[in-house]
Amino acid sequence: MCTDYIKQKRILLVDDEQELLELVLSILKEDGFQNMRTAKTAAEAAAVSKSYHPEFAILDVMLPDGDGFQLMEQIRRVLDYPVLFLTARGEEEDKFRGFELGADDYMVKPFLPKELLFRVNAILRRSYKDENPLVKLADSEIDFARAEVIKNGTRTLLTAKEHSILAALYRNEGRIVTIDALCEAAWGDNPFGYENSLMAHICRIREKIEANPSKPVSLLTVRGLGYKLIAEGKSW
Q1: What backbone phi and psi angles, to 5 degrees, belong to 222?
Q2: Considering the entire predicted model, what is its pTM?
Q3: CA-to-CA distance for 48 and 45, rounded, in angstroms?
Q4: Residue range 116-128: average pLDDT?
Q5: How does pLDDT run across 90-114, given as a tens digit for each residue?
Q6: In whole angstroms, how far apart are CA 87 and each of 111, 115, 182, 185, 214?
Q7: What HEC string does the chain produce?
Q8: Sign of the CA dihedral 199, 147, 78, 19?
Q9: pLDDT digits 0-9 by tens, 172-216
Q10: What distance lies between CA 67 and its chain's CA centroid?
Q11: Which residues have a Cβ under 8 Å from the Cβ of 232 and sit 6 or more positions away?
Q12: Cα-trace Rg, the chain
C-alpha cells in the first residue's frame, strides 16, 4: 500500500474518451488519490502540464491531434516524471517504442481496475521511494526527514516553503526546474505572482547550504529558465 504522501501526487490523465477518463478517475479516487487533472487532446495536455506540473501521467497513445509518444517527449522537456501508457494499441512495436522513450509501464485496453491500481501504485512507490533521504551537497547535507540542513556540524531548520522548493529540485536533481514549477511546489495551484518571493527563498536556501552564497555551487541559476540542484551523493 502506498503512503498518504504518495496519494497526494499530482496525476495527469490524457484520453479522448470521456467515459474512460471518468472510469480511471473513479478507480483512482476509490484508492485514495485526489489530486488529478484530465485532458482529451495533446494540446490540452501540454497546456495543463504547464500550469499543473504533474508528478505522474497516464497517457493514451492515440489522440485527435497527435500521439502520446510525441506528447511524452514534449512534456518531459520541462519536468521528468513517471508515465504509464494506457491504450488500445497493443502491438509489440508500440510497446517497444513506449519503453524506449522511457515509459515506466504500458497497459493495453481493456484492463482490470485492480491491475491498473497495482501498476500505478508500483510505479509511484518505485519513483518516489527516496522522498526523505540525507542528500550530500558540496558544502552541506540536506536532511529531508528532519527538514534541516547540516553544515560545519551545525543543523539549521528549513521552513516549509524552503523544504518544498528543495524537494522539487531534488526530485529533478541535475536537471533544470522552471520557475513556474518551483512556485507551484511552494504555493500550490495558483502560483502566479510569486516569482520575487521565490528568489528571496532561493537566497535564504543558499545561505543555509552554500559555503559562499554569492558563488553557489550546489543550487545554480539557469538564466531565463529556472534553477537546478547539484548533489554529491546520497546516504540513508
Answers
A1: -110, 100
A2: 0.58
A3: 5
A4: 89
A5: 888 999 999 988 899 999 999 999 9
A6: 10, 14, 31, 30, 50
A7: CCCHHHHCCCEEEECCCHHHHHHHHHHHHHCCCCCEEEECCHHHHHHHHHHHCCCEEEECCEECCEEHHHHHHHHCCCCCCCEEEEECCCCHHHHHHHHHCCCCEEEECCCCHHHHHHHHHHHHHHHCCCCCCEEECCCCEEECCCCEEEECCEEEECCHHHHHHHHHHHHCCCCCEEHHHHHHHHHCCCCCCCHHHHHHHHHHHHHHHCCCCCCCCCEEEECCCEEEECCCEEEC
A8: negative
A9: 888 899 998 898 888 876 667 789 999 999 999 999 999 999 999
A10: 21
A11: 136, 137, 138
A12: 19
CA distance 122 to 215: 41
Task: Copy the grid coordinates of residue 41.
Answer: 487532446
Of residues 74, 63, 70, 86, the one with CA closest to residue 11: 86
Q: What is the pLDDT of residues 22-77, one digit of tens each?
A: 999 999 999 989 889 999 999 999 888 877 888 899 999 999 998 899 998 887 77
Q: What is the mean pLDDT of the chain?
A: 88
